[in-house]
Amino acid sequence: MDPVIEVVGFLLGFLGWVMVGIALPNRYWKESTVDGSVITTSTIYENLWMSCASDSTGIHDCREFPSLLALSGYLQASRALMIAAIVMGTFGILATMVGMKCSKAGGENYILKGRIAGTGGVCFLLQGLCTMISVSWYAFNITQEFFDPFYPGTRFEFGEGLYIGWCSAILAICGGSCLLCACKLEQSDDTPYMYQPNKGTVYSAAVTSQRGATSPYDKNAYV
Taking the model in full, what pTM does it have? Predict the structure, then answer.
């Protein structure tokens, strides 16, 4: 495995994991501004855990969602996927750190270390997929409610938490792909070469011995 590709894949996956940790508690997954006078203008914003509001005076008021079972299905699924993304990213970081060639963990068995690094790449891919599904599903519901003419509630728009989540998913997927491609290239380069002898030339000991042996019919045999 190329150490440069290893390091690049690890850094991309690690950055994606950090950004997942930033996106999960971010309060601005969706936001809406209620325009009015200078005094009554307020901003409403929500994430996976709470709903908040702030007015033009700078006062913030947040309220956590009271019941897990009372939440929408997509909101519960988004929570579970984001937590799964953090767990997968943690396993990916640990596996990649052990499997990299520049790491002394795992000994000198580079075949085993390559497989461990490939497992870390799979974990990074799963992290990116979980994040992408969670953020995209949440954004789809925002879009559906915004363009629904019969929706009675507040119409929200995309917040910064969604964009952080999308960037995190792309980084994690790129990092996992780099690690998997590097492992595949290493396996193809380490394939042993099978020696095939030249079948065009055959040397026979029997023929050589027959040439060297004297014929039982010498020149006086017919005399």
Answer: 0.75
